[in-house]
């Protein structure tokens, strides 16, 4: 596909996205993803949609919308008390390097979000008090699946019923992330959330010092910022997702975990607002 025709297609596509009110952080990701797609086999086109002069008109629409959206969507923290995180933003988090399991900070970020999604949002005090022994890995022989559950007297009893099931073959599997996280924790500390060693060298990725309550307090917004999410989300923004799934699967079965994973991966048919196009 020649740049001229691709630019025309993108111009029309961006205009459709703007009319539908697609969040700017999602729209901004398209140019780099399309460029990556075209520059890899079998196309190998060596095209940079973000800087190539043939794509000026489509880029102008993109920049204009993103600027206007960012200005209008900026909100003071006080306005975020009851704001639930959108499925689109949740999917953006799970796709971003900020939650990559290949780095100490990214791995901890993913485990932190997983814990709050699958077990219900925990207070900063509870998160600070979590220990390695706070979670137990068991097997559901009826479904032939492993799962984690909370076994900590410091955590409210209603959270002990929750289960976080594995999803074999899925790169977002929360149990695999948790197992990987456990294998990287510092053996000299019993704290579950330990401060990341940013070097990521060796088999131990974390320092024995526990992550502080203040860090937990603003954790979700801290994870969101590098992903380009301008809205301020309190940690409690994850609670709406947990409650929505709980309404469908009140017994915390395997289906409970499966439904959460479908939402964060963008596969939930009832709530999927992603747009697909072919070049």
From TrEMBL:
<dbReference type="InterPro" id="IPR052787">
    <property type="entry name" value="MAVS"/>
</dbReference>
<protein>
    <recommendedName>
        <fullName>DUF3504 domain-containing protein</fullName>
    </recommendedName>
</protein>
């Amino acid at each position: 596909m020649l740049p001229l025709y691709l630019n025309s297609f993108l111009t029309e596509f961006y205009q459709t996205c703007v009319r539908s009110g697609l969040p700017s952080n999602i729209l901004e990701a398209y140019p780099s993803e399309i460029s990556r797609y075209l520059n890899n086999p079998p196309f190998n086109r060596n095209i940079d949609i973000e800087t190539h002069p043939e794509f000026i008109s489509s880029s102008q629409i993109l920049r204009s919308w993103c600027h206007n959206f960012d200005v209008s969507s900026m909100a003071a923290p006080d306005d975020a008390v009851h704001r639930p995180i959108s499925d689109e933003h949740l999917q953006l988090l799970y796709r971003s390097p900020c939650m990559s399991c290949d780095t100490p900070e990214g791995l901890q970020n993913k485990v932190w979000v997983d814990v709050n999604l699958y077990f219900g949002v925990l207070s900063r005090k509870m998160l600070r008090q979590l220990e390695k022994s706070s979670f137990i890995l068991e097997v559901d022989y009826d479904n032939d699946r492993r799962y984690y559950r909370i076994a900590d007297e410091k955590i409210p009893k209603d959270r002990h019923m929750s289960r976080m099931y594995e999803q074999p073959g899925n790169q977002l599997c929360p149990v695999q992330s948790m197992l990987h996280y456990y294998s990287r924790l510092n053996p000299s500390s019993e704290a579950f959330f330990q401060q990341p060693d940013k070097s990521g060298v060796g088999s131990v990725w974390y320092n024995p010092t526990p992550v502080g309550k203040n860090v937990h307090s603003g954790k979700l917004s801290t994870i969101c910022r590098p992903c380009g999410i301008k809205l301020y989300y309190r940690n409690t923004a994850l609670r709406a997702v947990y409650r929505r799934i709980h309404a469908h699967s009140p017994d915390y079965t395997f289906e409970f975990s499966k439904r959460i994973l479908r939402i964060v991966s963008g596969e939930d048919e009832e709530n999927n607002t992603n747009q697909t196009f072919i070049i």
